[in-house]
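Re: your question from the hallway

Yes, I did run it. Sequences:
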Amino acid sequence: MSAYAARAGVTAAIIVPAGKVAAGKMVQATAFGAKIIRVDGNFDDALSMLLQTISGLPGFAGMNSVNPYRLEGQKSTAFEIYEQLGFSVPDYVVLPVGNAGNISAIWKGFKELRDFGITEKVPRMVGVQAVGASPIARAFWKGSETITPVDDPNTVASAIRIGKPASAKKALAALRESEGMALTVTDEEITAARSLLSSKEGIFVEPASAAPIAALREISGKLEKDAVVVCVCTGNGLKDQESIRIDIEDAPLVSDRSGLTDLLERLASRPLVPA
Amino acid sequence: MSAYAARAGVTAAIIVPAGKVAAGKMVQATAFGAKIIRVDGNFDDALSMLLQTISGLPGFAGMNSVNPYRLEGQKSTAFEIYEQLGFSVPDYVVLPVGNAGNISAIWKGFKELRDFGITEKVPRMVGVQAVGASPIARAFWKGSETITPVDDPNTVASAIRIGKPASAKKALAALRESEGMALTVTDEEITAARSLLSSKEGIFVEPASAAPIAALREISGKLEKDAVVVCVCTGNGLKDQESIRIDIEDAPLVSDRSGLTDLLERLASRPLVPA
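Structure:
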């Protein structure tokens, strides 16, 4: 949002729950010239305060997923998936669900593709939440159309650490209409999936973006053979660097060729040159 | 490199000058499962030690721009520029020059497009170095075909903090053959250009990537009217976050609607609602 505001010459304010947003996102917003305002509370408190405040403040518009223009933009993810799959619709679209704008918007995009006669089918939408912040999954399982907010949402995946999602109703409709499902994953499963994705696939994402991969590991055995599954990874891993524990001072330090040779040889499964 | 190695199932070691590489790059390489080895010295020391070591070590290949396969991959940037400009060749391609692989490779790509009869012209290559690490620019200005290494290269732009570029000869040939030019910029100019790019264009890059923008500000008045200029921004700003000074504890903290209203009103150029 701050990048687009910078390009458009519009003043941007970023309202964040104090101490709860990954540092990279703050750095990025600051670089784009946005004004950061911290709210004493969690994401839900910050969103609620923002919406109440700007409703009486002409000249300001909230850019969260309660803003319909935001969903109109986000729905184009569906068009991109369709295009990048060679103009075909996947069987499943799996994505992390926090404030629930993305799943609502992507479902809208696929419905429009079908309603305009461009495609014949729609995918099943699979929403993944962290166990500690799963109001939508719980409502879905109960068959309820409204959520019971989670007062103290808790998960390593800061982007989906949300207890009272603004687009909960739309997301629940997306899950039902698409004959999809809601799943929850633990922080351990998220962290393991993030590591798998980076160390085996070369894709480095923020923790929330690994939630779909964690969920997929759980259900892949139950899906139809040859099902086409798209997992949406929503955030670059560089935004959330603090969750990768790296102490660079622990990396070996060498000062000559023999030291480097020794380390490289140890790195290979067996000595590469005879002793 | 570590991302591709992860995807291919190949063991990767990253040899870095201790304390001289942006933290985000270390986090990324670590996430991809690469083994980081620090060398006591600067970039040039690390590269020289690496090349000497692996020359006697079967099973290892250096992936720096001395590796011809690397340049073959990088040259495709020229094809992408050609494609993304609607299948036309720009008048100028401006890019940061550190180890000089990129400028050599991109020039190779444009030459091949012309030599295979796909295009008729080639762009002028403009290489930009930091004042404190400018061996190629100095050699170019002197009309020399070889560089005098800079023993203690120094610039805020860590990605081009290189005193003895491996591909210096190829880069000098690219500048001359293309009838291009070499320019230097100060750290202050780099920092100002980085800020301009993020706050006005919504593009957040690492410091080295802002060097072409800094150079362009200097020369834009001297270029032909309607010249098409492509600046290559080589690195995401999230890789080098430490160079953006942000003290999040300094951001205002609010706990109620009136506090937020007050801040938002002050942010607007004049009060948006009557007192």
